[in-house]
Sequence to fold (41 residues):
Amino acid sequence: MAEYTFTSYRTVETRKSMIRKKLNLSSKEDLYIWMSNLNKK
Fold:
């Protein structure tokens, strides 16, 4: 993802962490899997 957005790996990780915090997800839960499950509901 960082390569496609021309940002650093750490920036992507920080943004993912911020999204998890806003959605009240634990750091153990995979954000991509959680998002893909949204489409199935």
